[in-house]
């Protein structure tokens, strides 16, 4: 749950001008997460979010460069810890994860910026990775398998 929530937080601060912890907590509740101010505060600290000047004036939360760089390693660990199986069919790769881990694991795939990957879609425990063709699907599935070791 924590990994999924923190993945959503990163998306929220990227897409919105969030000025306060209360605003972030409200958006998380709208997204279906039951959070307290203390939980949001811990997440902000763990994700190393910083306040930056927004285009509209005032300050908003954003991911700092060191946090973004450190997150790639963290998402790789999350991926390895949460993935149960990887299989390809045609140009689609199906990744099965532990319950409530698919979003964070999909973020790991997205953060790799593989040119073969057209996009990912995550549910609760399944990720679909769409690539250009069957040959790329086999290669990407093998690359993802190596992350599990």
Total helical segments: 6
Compute the gyration radius: what is it?
A: 16 Å
Q: So, CATH architecture of the largest domain?
A: 2-Layer Sandwich
Main pleated sheet: 4 strands, antiparallel
Order of helices and strands: HHHEEHEEHEEH
Task: List how many beta strands DSSP finds.
Answer: 6
Low-confidence stretches: none
Coarse morphology: elongated
Q: What is the rounded distance between the termini?
A: 23 Å
The amount of helix comes to 40-55%
Task: Walk me through what this model shows.
The chain is of the alpha+beta class. It has two domains: 2-63, Winged helix-like DNA-binding domain superfamily/Winged helix DNA-binding domain (Arc Repressor Mutant, subunit A, Orthogonal Bundle); 78-147, Gyrase A, domain 2. 52% of the residues lie in helices and 23% in strands. The protein contains six helices and six strands, in the order H-H-H-E-E-H-E-E-H-E-E-H. A hairpin with a 3-residue loop joins strand 5 and strand 6 (126-131). Helix 1 (2-15) packs across helix 5 (102-111) and helix 4 (65-82) crosses helix 5. The longest helix is centred in the middle third of the chain and has 18 residues, at 65-82.
């Amino acid at each position: 749950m924590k990994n999924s929530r923190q993945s959503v937080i990163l998306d929220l601060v990227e897409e919105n001008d969030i000025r306060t912890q209360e605003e972030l907590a409200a958006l998380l509740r709208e997204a279906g997460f039951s959070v307290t101010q203390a939980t949001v505060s811990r997440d902000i600290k763990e994700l190393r979010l910083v306040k930056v000047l927004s285009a509209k004036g005032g300050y908003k939360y954003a991911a700092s460069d060191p946090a973004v760089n450190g997150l790639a390693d963290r998402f790789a660990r999350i991926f390895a810890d949460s993935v149960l199986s990887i299989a390809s069919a045609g140009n689609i790769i199906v990744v099965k994860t532990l319950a409530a881990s698919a979003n964070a694991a999909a973020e790991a795939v997205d953060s790799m910026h593989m040119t073969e990957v057209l996009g990912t879609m995550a549910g609760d425990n399944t990720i679909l990775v769409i690539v250009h063709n069957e040959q790329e699907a086999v290669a990407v599935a093998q690359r993802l398998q190596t992350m599990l070791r």
